[in-house]
Amino acid sequence: MNVVEAQRFLFQLSMNNDRAWFKANEANYESAVREPVRAFIRDMAAPLAAVSSHLVADDRKVGGSMMRIQRDVRFSNDKSPYKTHVGIQFRHTVGKDIHAPGVYVHIGPDEVFLGVGMWMPEAEPLRALREAVRDRLPAWQKALAAAERAGFTQHRDALTRVPKGFDKADPAAEELKRRSFIATFRLDDVEVLEPKEIGAKVKQVSDYMAFLCAAVGLPF
To answer: 155 in a domain, yes or no?
Structure first.
C-alpha cells in the first residue's frame, strides 16, 4: 500500500473537513485510501495467520478491519464529519470491539504506527489482566523485554494509584496501574506498507499478545 498517497489525501481532508469537499473528492478517497487499504487487509491474512490463527483480516467495506472514516459527532463539541486518519484493526476472532487483544495499523497525515494489545478494556477483563500481571510477573516482564528489543514502546495510560483490591507494595505495582495494555511501533519513514514486514513485526511481539489473550481466557 502506498502510504504517501493516502497521507496526501488525509492531509487535504484535514484542511477541508466538510461533507461537500469529501463528496467532490470521493473518487480520490476510493483510489488513494479505501481500495488500497482493503487490498492491504487482504494481503495481511497470510502473514497474520503465520502468527496466530485467531487474528482476522476482513476486507469488507463496512464492519471489516478498516474502521469507518465518518466520525460519531453526537456527543462531541467537534462536529468535523470525518476522521483525518485511517484505522485498520485486525481483531481477535471473538473480539467484537477494540477491547479484545488485537493488531492495529494507524495511518495519519503525519504519523504511521503499528499497535498491539488491548485499549481501555472494560472492568472485568482489565481486572483479569492486572491479576495475570501480578501472578505471572516474570512472564509479563519477559514479554515486555521482547517487545522493547523489537523497538516497541509501551503506551503509559495509567492511574496515579494502585487500583483497589491490589497491594501498593506489590512488585508489580506500577504495571497494575495500567488502564491499557498497548505496545506501539512507529512507521513514520515507511512509504509503502509491506504485509510481510508488518507480519514479521507482529510476530516479534507474539509473547506479548499471547500473555494478554491467556489473561482474558482467549486462545492465541
So the answer is: yes
Give the CA distances from residue 93 to residues 48, 57, 125, 218, in Å, rounded to whole numbers and listed in that order.
Answer: 12, 10, 16, 10
Stated as kind and residue range, the H or E segment containing 104 is strand 102-107
The arrangement of strands across the sheet holding 153-154 comes to 86-91, 102-107, 112-118, 181-186, 153-154
Q: Amino acid identity, residue 13?
A: L
Looking up cell 490463527, which residue turns up?
53
Taking only the tens place, the pLDDT of each residue in 143-161 is: 999 999 999 999 888 999 9
Residue 14 has which C-alpha cell?
484535514
The pTM score is: 0.94
Number of structural domains the chain divides into: 1
Q: Which three cell numbers stand for residue 29?
A: 478517497
**Unique residue bearing C-alpha cell 498517497:** 5
User: Domain span at residue 73?
Assistant: 3-215
Confidence of residue 97 (pLDDT cuts 50, 70, 90): low
